[in-house]
Specification:
This protein has four domains: about 120 residues, no CATH class; about 80 residues, Barwin-like endoglucanases (Beta Barrel); about 50 residues, no CATH class; about 130 residues, Topoisomerase I, Chain A, domain 4, CATH 1.10.132. Helix 2 runs antiparallel to helix 3, helix 9 crosses helix 11 and helix 12 runs antiparallel to helix 13. A three-stranded antiparallel beta sheet has the order 4-3-5. The two termini are about 50 Å apart. The chain is built from 16 helices and eight strands. A hairpin with a 2-residue loop joins strand 1 and strand 2. It is mainly alpha-helical and about 525 residues long. Helix content is about 45%, strand content about 5%. Belongs to the RNA polymerase beta' chain family.
Length: about 525
């Protein structure tokens, strides 16, 4: 009934769903190749066509020439013909896929058309791309254009609007594009061979849009959550951490200030307004320059001797092994169930691993505060405490392919090296991580294409749409925090008592962050 309703709503005749004429591809799209004198290689579609013709002729003979043909034989032949037709249009749509003698699935018309390597996206859309067959030559007029024109820099894949940004360019020697470090995060770019496309908009309208909408100074926030994206990262963090840590003899670290909290808050607001509001680009660029300069002066590099194993690890592991041995005895004598033994064993080794993690930072501070591993992880430049713990502590408990925790922990760390058993146990998570990453990447790309196809007819015509619909805030957390001012959201209504502070937000509603003017409640 649902299918019939769709037929009525779209004015589709049901007879249109039945093929009376079989579409046949041109020979150029289903070629036949001669490999040897007596050996041919043909397209899968040719083989499916051959089966359709053979089964259709057989059915015709059964219906015309034979008089006493059993009804079951005719029905069976009709099913075979329908199976061949399904394999031609979309192989496997009805369950079992049609295969060749080598158990390989035939490629149907749908497989030839759809996907990234299909006829539409690979062949037809390639004709729209500009191909440079000869060596490019820089003309003198290009220098004149680039003096005043903004250029668009594009890096694929474009997962959000920050994948294309406008810049004022400078021609330099060499074939490498010199990209500013503060915009790398928006492009998700690194310097290991990434390729980017440079486009020069020539018309006045295109230049105006590039300057007002796509200029890098206009794209300093995440489009989704409003957090700053043009912010210092990695080497800048390590340089600033090196600058602000250590022994500062002769530096006055305190000052005589009034105890009035209002005075301190006013001074803080003045500083924040000066740096963040009025000096946004200059502030980040100066912080970047300072961080790189100090990172160069620190000369931070990572070596194997910098991975210092925690001294207390040995007796901690011995204590955990003793507890596990006692637990194994209780299980052997029937005092502890197998499930309870597994739970207690996991708790023992988890507690040991966590204690080693807590001992990690004090060990670095006592041995070498300027250890490169400690600087990179503790400053937030690269890595985290969990990764450093696996380097100098212990890898700890691992999961099997089914997601269950293995009660045999990896006692070694990556600095000491793993045994054969520990290496095999650790392979489960590594393999799962690689597979999950590939699956998530393909799924995200496919969902993005579907989203674009669904919403491509929507046009935003005004900055403030005046909607009264919002999201109810029932958690009791404040919704008027400083870090949410830049999320294009503001309060719709308050349902609390009259005169109540808007900072409570217990029964408030927050406007959805789409099409809203950047404002504070």
């Amino acid at each position: 009934m649902e299918l019939a309703k769709h037929f009525i709503q779209t004015n589709i005749e049901p007879k249109w769903m039945v093929l009376r004429l079989l579409p046949v591809l041109p020979p150029e799209l289903r070629p036949i190749y001669h490999i040897d004198e007596d050996k041919l290689v043909t397209s899968d579609i040719n083989e499916i066509y051959r089966r359709i013709i053979y089964r259709n002729n057989t059915l015709t003979d059964l219906l015309t020439t034979s008089i006493a043909t059993p009804e079951e034989l005719i029905t069976s032949q009709e099913k075979l013909l329908q199976e061949a037709m399904d394999a031609l249009l979309n192989n496997g749509i009805c369950g079992q896929s049609m295969r060749d003698d080598h158990n390989r699935v035939y490629k149907s018309l749908s497989d030839v058309i759809e996907g990234k390597e299909g006829r539409v996206r690979e062949t037809l859309l390639e004709l729209l791309k500009v191909k440079f067959q000869k060596k490019p030559i820089v003309w003198e007029i290009l220098q004149e254009i680039l003096d005043d024109y903004h250029v668009l820099l594009n890096r694929v894949p474009i997962l959000h609007r920050l994948g294309i940004q406008a810049f004022l360019s400078i021609l330099v020697e060499g074939r490498a594009i010199c990209l500013h470090p503060l915009v790398c995060k928006g492009f998700n770019a690194d310097f290991d061979g990434d390729q980017m496309a440079v486009h020069v908009p020539l018309s006045l309208e295109a230049q105006a849009e590039a300057r007002l909408l796509m200029f890098s100074h206009m794209n300093i926030l995440y489009p989704t959550i409003g957090d700053p994206i043009s912010a210092p990262t990695q080497d800048i963090f390590s340089g600033l951490y090196f600058l602000t840590s250590g022994n500062h003899q002769g530096v006055v670290d305190t000052a005589i200030l009034t105890s009035d909290a209002g005075y301190l808050m006013r001074r803080l607001v003045e500083v924040v307004q000066h740096i963040v509001v009025h000096r946004t680009d200059c502030g980040t660029v100066r912080v970047k320059t300072l961080g790189f300069r100090q990172a160069t002066a620190a000369s931070i590099s990572l070596g194997i001797d910098d991975l210092l194993t925690i001294p207390s690890k040995r007796w901690l592991v011995q204590d955990a092994e003793q507890q596990s041995f006692i637990l194994e005895k209780h299980h052997h004598y029937g005092n502890v169930h197998a499930v309870e033994k597994l739970r207690q064993s996991i708790e023992i080794w988890y507690a040991t691993s966590e204690y080693l993690r807590q001992e990690m930072n004090p060990n670095f501070w006592m041995t070498d505060p300027f250890n490169p591993v400690h600087i990179m992880s503790f400053s937030g430049a690269r890595g985290n405490a969990s990764q450093v713990h696996q380097l100098v502590g212990m890898r700890g408990l691992m999961s099997d392919p089914q997601g269950q925790m293995i009660d045999l922990p990896i006692q070694s760390n990556l600095r000491e090296g793993l045994s054969l058993t520990e290496y095999i146990i650790s392979c489960h998570g590594a393999r799962k991580g690689v597979v999950d990453t590939a699956i998530r990447t393909s799924d995200a790309g496919y969902l993005t294409r579907r989203l674009v196809e669904v919403v491509q007819h929507i046009v935003v015509r005004r900055t403030e749409c005046g909607t009264v619909r919002g999201e109810a805030n029932t958690t009791g957390t404040p919704i008027n925090k400083m870090d949410e001012v830049a999320i294009n959201a503001k309060t719709v209504n308050w349902y609390g008592r009259p005169g109540a502070s808007s900072r409570s937000g217990k029964k408030g509603m927050r406007r959805a962050p789409f099409f809203s003017r950047m404002a504070s409640s």
